[in-house]
Amino acid sequence: MKLFTKLTLFITLSKMVIAILFVLLLPFLVEDIAFRYNDYYLKEQRKKVLNVIWKNGIDAYLQGEENYGSYTMLKEEYISMEPAGKNNLPDTIATLQRVVEGDTLTYRVLSHIFDYHNRRYMLEVGKKTATISQYNRPLQKVALYVLFGLIVFTTLVDLIFTRLLLRPLGVIISTKLVNRKFPFKDHIPPIRTTTTDFRYLDDSLIELMGKIKEAFEKEREFTSNASHELMTPIAILQNKMENLMVEDSPDEELQKKIVGMMKTLNRLKKIVHSLLLISRIENDQFSKTDSLSPYTLVTDVMEELEHRLEEKQLRFNMNISRQIILHNLNHDLIFQLVYNILNNAIKYNKPGGQIMAGDKLIPGEAYQLIISDTGMGISEQEIGTIFNRFKKVVRTEQEGYGLGLSIVSTIAEYHDIKITVSSTVNAGSTFIISFPS
Amino acid sequence: MKVLIIEDEKTMAVEMQAFLEKAYYCCDLAHTARLGLEKIEENQYDFILLDLGLPDKDGLHLLQEARKNCSQAAYIILTARGQLEDRIKGLDMGADDYLPKPFSLLELQARMQAVSRRKFGLTDSEIPLGDFNIDLHKRSVFFEGQEISLSRREFDLLSYMLLHKNRPLSRMQLSEHIWGNFSDDDYDSNYIDVHIKNIRKKLSAFASVDWLQTIRHVGYKIKL
């Protein structure tokens, strides 16, 4: 998941959790606040009553009566005063039932005991509980609207800001990481950002890419130099030997030795050629712009190999579709790949054996070229290492230089071609070359 | 024919000279581009063999300048760089052929002959070989006007040996000429024997082929 998506999800989810918590808590909070305020209000009322008694005497209420009671029009509040017993109780606020004009109503009641002229009175101030909570609903509503608005607003601000903040990272990813193909030939300027983390990341990437490019250039240079430096002495030796051969010396033994030396030199030449080829492929020095028909390719390869086929009296069966055209390949390299595999199929075959070349198109996935032989096969423990450089397997016949299949694997890797090998000893091997679609 | 070899590797130039002089070419040597250009100004050459990796100047630049002074010569580029771009560039700039190092001197001579046939239109394309005649243009062998059919590779072998007549050629050298980079010496050299056997069989039906000699431990030679 992308960082921005993650942050968006986190921001939205966390805000939603806060909103849900708030909505759940809101009724209790509002209720609590209403009751607290009400208790405060009752205390204020008591203060007012006591002030009046203090100023005007208790008769301002009692007017000679034993007790006093009064309530507002809709019985929402009431006040009462009556003589109290001897016991001295502290102030209490409680929710109690009171009977007013025959109606039993629930009130929040503050009871207060006070002395006046050596007499003890009890003052009760009450407010109907229903009226206490009357503003709760509208209050909750307003609070919810405000909350909703705030959440939408802050989420938007958060997202916009996150997006702005993460933009440099996006730029780094799109310009420096995505679709960047090795070798990094074009120079990409550093990004503009005030975030030091991104700055650091970008600088590090630029530095790394620079180093890789440098190493790549060095290797390319080395390959070119090495080919020159190795090939020149080989060339000189070869030419010297060629000139030696023509000397009109009747010495048979000497000529035999020269031919032997030339063979060894030829072997050296081929090893150097193969290593240079591998190195050039790994250095990306071949274009991949050719299109080719597998049918024509295999036909061409077999034409080159015909004489070897004849010598071993092998039968060759080809069943390849003529319509298929493969694109974005290097013709010479693919030729070499198929050549090496078919050459091995001949080399390690038994006299009178058979070689089959077939194909299979898996729509949308791959095109497979399948080459199988009836040769000596590859044992299970050897099959994993046949593509390794200089890995030789135990063979009784004349050996190659152990580079043929590693060239195959290098070419395959260069083209994203997969090669799978299955084999049974003394029965034959099958190479499946899967070209990406 | 007059040949100028521009090659900074002195030993290599000397070997080329020794080989070509045996084939009756007349060779001059130059080890730097500057010397090469001087020689080109002073003399007329039929062939200029040019190494690309010279110490004082890039071979491709030299090729451009040399062609101004000596445009009728045939140019063959020799290089150890071996990159495809160099080859294309060289041929684009008017080189007649291109040989990557290390090359066989036999191959060099064969290319030179092919270039001279193509470029200078030498008409002696029919070459006598014992009682036979070989037509390099038509790629066929005649005995008293009668054509003898040889396979493509048999003809290649025969004409290559004829070009290098009186020179012992090893099986490896022959197979390298025929199969190039794909030759597999231990494998293909046996096949050379098969070809030679076929050539002998086809030709000896008409006349003696004693000129095609087997050289023990080495290979074959056409002795004329």
From TrEMBL, chain A:
GO-annotated cellular components: plasma membrane
Going by the record, the broad EC class of this enzyme is: transferase
InterPro entries in UniProt: BphY/WalK/GraS-like, HATPase_C_sf, HATPase_dom, His_kinase_dom, HisK_dim/P_dom, HisK_dim/P_sf, Sig_transdc_His_kin-like_C
Question: Known EC number(s)?
Answer: 2.7.13.3
What residue ranges are annotated as transmembrane? 7-30, 142-166
Gene Ontology biological process terms from the UniProt entry: cellular response to phosphate starvation
For molecular function, the Gene Ontology terms on record are: phosphoprotein phosphatase activity; phosphorelay sensor kinase activity
Q: Which UniProt keywords apply?
A: Kinase, Membrane, Phosphoprotein, Transferase, Transmembrane, Transmembrane helix, Two-component regulatory system
Q: Which domain of life is it from?
A: Bacteria
Q: Which reaction does it catalyse?
A: ATP + protein L-histidine = ADP + protein N-phospho-L-histidine
Q: Which Gene3D superfamilies match?
A: 1.10.287.130, Histidine kinase-like ATPase, C-terminal domain
Q: Which residues form the Histidine kinase domain?
A: 225-437
Q: What is this protein called?
A: histidine kinase
This chain's source organism reads: Chitinophaga niastensis
From TrEMBL, chain B:
Give the matching SUPFAM superfamilies: CheY-like
Organism of origin: Chitinophaga niastensis
Q: Which CDD domains match?
A: REC_OmpR_PmrA-like, trans_reg_C
Q: Which residues bind DNA?
A: 124-224
Per the record, the GO terms for biological process are: regulation of DNA-templated transcription
**Has keyword Ribonucleoprotein?**
no
Give the Response regulatory domain ranges.
2-116
InterPro entries per the UniProt record, alphabetical: CheY-like_superfamily, OmpR/PhoB-type_DNA-bd, Sig_transdc_resp-reg_receiver, WalR-like, WH-like_DNA-bd_sf
Source superkingdom: Bacteria
Q: Which PANTHER family match?
A: REGULATOR OF RPOS, TWO-COMPONENT RESPONSE REGULATOR ORR33
- Cellular component per GO? cytosol; protein-DNA complex
Query: What is this protein called in UniProt?
Result: DNA-binding response OmpR family regulator
Keyword list (alphabetical) reads: DNA-binding, Phosphoprotein, Transcription, Transcription regulation, Two-component regulatory system
Task: Give residue ranges for domain OmpR/PhoB-type.
Answer: 124-224
User: A Gene Ontology molecular-function term?
Assistant: phosphorelay response regulator activity
UniProt entry tagged with the keyword Ubl conjugation: no
Residues annotated as carrying 4-aspartylphosphate in the record are: 51
